[in-house]
Fold these 4 entries.
Entry 1:
Amino acid sequence: MENPQTQITKAVIIAAGFGTRFLPATKNQPKEMLPIIDKPILHYVVEEAVNSGIRDIILVTRFGNHLIEDYFDNRYELEAQLESSRKTKRLEMVRNIPQMANFVYVRQKGHLPYGNGSPLIAIKELIDENDSFVYMFADDLTWCNGFPPITKQLIDAYLEHNAVAAVGVQEVPWEEVDRYGTVKYKDENGCEVEGIMEKLPKEEAYSNKVQFGRFVFSYDVIRKAEETKPGKDNELWVSDILNELAHEGKKVIAPPIKGEWLTTGDPLRYLKTSIKFALRRDDLREKILDFIKNEASES
């Protein structure tokens, strides 16, 4: 499908996992609501979308994730308390959260296969056939250090190349490629994708460039998701859907990105990401550095 759009304003954010690597912390709260300093992981993802021109956000959740809906709504008792205490900055902060975007919530139903591609089927009625949209994993964060948000960079590349899909990629150490989907390019100097394979050992991996949770899709991707059978571990993978499209001659791109992908997918990486965000805050950097130095000298 040719893409006639000049602006993309919808994002689908996936927050339907169980967060089992963080049990028992995630027994009664979504992993996406764990804090990075003073904001939940998901808040940062929504901010990135909004700063990239997104106005409508579709959050795909599961049973028990009502805390997500509560977070992006008003809490009038708290607001009244902050107002009576004259804590105006904090009052403005919490009142602004529901105004970040237009939020819609979709429960991923149990009849769908497990996997990061299944939400595409869950939201198909909410995307017009002429629409393109951003697709984001709620446990992946990014840092751009003065560059436009990674989502905005992907949107711009997607529109420029008239693609059916744009994929965020980043190089990782070869020892880690078996954790991710690795990308093979059609041309060594281009950005068009020939294929993506999930979780291969480094001896078999296409490259050490791996996809992470930032995509831009046309409606063709939703159509193909409905046709694609579950693959590795009986899951429906985004990579399998994109492979099908690429093999049909549709343009799937993985353009170069300025910025850094920071995952929170397991406790170690979550802690590393938390520290990185703290070190980039003027009010915390020196205190955190002093703490790390002191701890290192005492250990």
Note: The chain has a mean pLDDT of 90.
Entry 2:
Amino acid sequence: MRQVMDLTNKTIAVTGASGMLGPYLCRALIASGAKVRGVVRNPRKAAFLEPEGVTLATADLMNRDALTAAFRGCDGVVSNAALYRVFNQSWKANYRPNKEGTENVYEAAAAASAARVVQISTFGVYRWHLGKPAINDDSPTLDGSRKQGGAYRATKQLSEALAFELSKQRGLQTTAVRPAAIYGARDHNLIPYIRMYFRLPIVLMPKFWFPFVYAGDIANAVVGAFNNDASAGRAYLTAGRTATVYEFAQAWKEASGKSNLVLPIPLGIGMHVDCSRAERELGFSNRSYVDGLRETFEADARYRAEGVE
């Protein structure tokens, strides 16, 4: 029988609550009945979450004592905070938050007796290949110690491996989820560049297979991981759907009401993904690109009206 952690009135800490994915995680957990403690470096940037029921605690990933204090009294932790900047491939800049920060989070969770953890990993830990077979949960991963895949992908592979190693050593129950290119409100990595590109009257987009995933769908998968104790010790591909960049651009045009002419660049190659295990065991599902983008645009409009950064 599937063992379920009932989140009702459980307290879950979310690191990086003020980032792009953080608010989605907080809201999904609250909707599931949990109490949420947002762990952030700057509470001012997360103040917009307090009226929604999120309590805030101040801690930096480099401060293990502050993390331990923030996690005290929590039943679980979402290890979400990390560095991701599209053009930042500095090894030192990525290693400190992604590798050393993860070590601090897990040692702090153990010290605070917050035994259940969900690690936000990435599709980037895989050894990418074009075409089929599709990449799935058990596909080969990079060797981060050899800096394969660049600074971000390598340090995230090291981070995930360390999360599972420390979990075994400290008696923690950890599930990792591996999203691909996440889109959502308050995104500073993907969305701004697409907005810029859509200022052109004609938009050329490749028919290249690559998965995009809505932040709200990742948040629901995290809740699903907490709700399934059997997921502990496993990593799940939550990459999104197998579709092309051109299809994503077409959905952007429809969701935004833009009049741009979107033309395909025929390639017929790309990366295919199989997220069926996460669908079965975490309840992971992908809303359509159009629906996800509409929700993103509406949320961004609300944030601008409220002055939220």
Note: The chain has a mean pLDDT of 94.
Entry 3:
Amino acid sequence: MDSLNGPISFLKLVATTTLLQIIWLLGFIFVFGILLSLLARFTRITFVKTIGLKSDIFFKGWIGVPVHELGHALFCIIFRHKIIDIRLYRPNAEDGTLGYVNHTYNSRSLYQKIGNFFIGVGPILTGSLAIYVALYLLVPNHSDIFEPLKRGGSELVHVTQSNSGAILATYWQNTISILNNLFTASNLTSYKFWIFLYLSLCISSHMQLSAPDVKGASSGLASILIFFMVINAIILGLEALGVSNQFGNWWNYLKLESYALGINKWVGKFGTLLALATVISSINFTVSYVLLSIVSVLRGKGLVNPTH
């Protein structure tokens, strides 16, 4: 058993290092992605139960669905997947699909296999970016709202990958600042602000990931994990053998942690962007649920259950 202590400890170190790195790099996508997908699902269910599926598709789908499908298509292009067929907006009453992107890839290409993760979660990323763009174009004081996004990157520069509490605290503070700057008296009296809310409602309510989206993202995540584990095993193994000393300062360039400052900057920006989308999606769901529940009660159907 003693002879196994070395290999077992090494494997635990590789696994722990890999897990921390994945959480560091992609944790914000997991957390906010789940929240955004759930909020989108709850909002759509609320609309369908009160005004009907066709009305929901007509009222929100004509914008939300194309943004969703473009999220898949964009990352297909980035990760060199071949798009066989694409329909940005084509509701099908028989199978319930509103649009689709059919694609293939080379299963021997690690790069393309990793791309499955980003293709799967693409609607979350592009949907958040679309809300960001709409806010920039339509909300009068957008510079005040964007300030936390800029601050988020600089404040997280010196946060270590394992200090998740500091990261969440920064996200929370920035979110509160965004919320205070969004609902001001001047914004509420601007017609552009209400157009923004409508567009953000359309986009956010169609950011839900389908079962095939989740399946594809899961296969891509598995490839990412394997890739990081192999790289970490090589680096940690060479360090344990003392071989890394022969490379001098050049060895640090091979380690992910050496790029922490730049990584944290972008993690902060993208994380706060997703936090902004989550706040706006929460507002859209809350307002929609309250108003449509009133309609449901007046029709004698009671309160809407948005979970199923």
Note: Residues 2-298 form one domain.
Entry 4:
Amino acid sequence: MRGSLVIPTLNEAPTIGEVVRRFRGAALEANRTILAGRPIDWEVVVVDGASTDRTAAIAAAEGARVVVERRRGYGRAYKTGFREARGELLATSDGDGTYPVETIPALARRVLDEGIDFLSGDRISRVTRRSMTTEHRFGNGLLNLFVRIAYHRYVSDLPGRTLVDSQSGLWVFRREVLDRVHLASDGMPFSEELKLEAVVRGLRFVETPIAYGERATPPKLQSGRDGIRNLWFLLTKRLALAREAHRGRPIPFAQGEGPSLPP
């Protein structure tokens, strides 16, 4: 089986090399141990947003396949990465070193063993004050509360009866998921949209607690601005879902992206 780890980057030279090395080391070890009977041939796809530092060169030197995406946006980087990826199993992480990429092979085995379609890392259950500021914790809590209320009819059947961490960026999922989900956002709301689409379309969705580390570089998020944008997107997405009863389901990502919702 082939797997692809997709990492969007923008000026992550201090950390991207270590992220790729940690993942590759864990993947090799897993193929010798927990995945010995069915090893996964992993590739690392780094989607670089035209960094002005040595991010792309460092990633390539560590064996990653680098794809430059000059169109801006977190979601746009992932859309490009998913189309470039060759794996039957897809995984994601940021390039800043905060996510435990060394756990991805074990999470991949869980996806395969348990028949999971989409597994998402839950940072909230284990978050510390050093890894996430009070401002970011408040923002995440507000977004998660809005999801719990506005999307109750969809998320109430999940194991935790809600979506615990709507903003997490570590996922492992089967490629077939892209045949079912509609992805409108090109920006930061892409993360919440992909998870919600997996739930809304009836895919088997599971969250699992993960560690979340400190950033080695300044954060690119602006809590107030990005939080408002995410809330607005969640609202417009919910209204779009309500209109599907009359307009029909939108085109899945794998068949063409279709029209985008407001940014």
Note: The helical segments are 16-32, 55-61, 74-84, 104-114, 134-150, 152-155, 190-200, 223-247.
